[in-house]
Design a protein that fits this description.
Elements: H1 4-19, H2 28-41, E1 45-55, E2 65-71, E3 91-94, H3 95-102, E4 109-113, H4 123-131, E5 135-140, E6 152-155, H5 165-170, E7 173-178, E8 196-201, H6 206-218, E9 223-224, H7 228-231
Parallel strand pairs: 2-4, 4-5, 5-6, 6-7, 7-8, 8-9
Antiparallel strand pairs: 1-2, 1-3
The structure holds iron/sulfur cluster.
Length: about 240
Amino acid sequence: MKSVKEKQATAFDIMKEEFGYKAKLAAPRLVKVVVWESANLGAAFLKVNEIFYSVQGEGKNSGIPMVFVRLAGCNLRCDFCDTKYAFEAGKEMMVGEILSERGKYPSKWVCITGGEPFIQPLDELARQLKADGSLIQIETNGTIFQPVTCDWLVVSPKKERRPVESMLERANEIKIVVNLKEALDFTEEYEAWGTCHSIQPENNHEEATKLCLDFVAEHPQWRLSMQLHKLINIR
Ligand code: SF4
């Protein structure tokens, strides 16, 4: 019988071989199987694109200093994605290494983002961050479910693949990025989920900002989210 360490190595090899961390749309069933299997093994290492300290620039928690743990890989390929550099690049880090990097910074909040963080097993990272007293925000497209506990879950629905209901049920915030007028067409269906609803112009573009401003004026249950970090030119 294989040891837990051997099983972890096997699951990790499967992820590398099957997806090369690209987790393509063509293989959604395999993504779920591998994520489920790895989550059950409590995988202790993750592929990390970058870890840095900055101010949350989006949504309800905008302005709060956070340590950002950007995980590598995403199962979608949105045209307007501003973190394409995280699709593949990254290094394998043990959860302990991530925690020690996080420990260099004084903020209470840690934001786990991507890419799409839920293509990798997050339970061990979240468990250890909580044990260490951190508050956790996770940013996700909501298409992959994992029963990970966090303090603020932001689900950002994308047109090319809608979030699964189990993630919407857990969402604290729904954040919709607007690049075209059509992006506003499906806002209403998300109003039943979460306690906060943010609408965010893609890359702070002028035309998209006008669309969002007009939208929140008519739909005051939604709030405008500008990308603060881009406005003040920080990471
Ligand atoms: S889901 Fe997010 S990270 Fe993935 S491609 Fe779309 S915008 Fe980029």
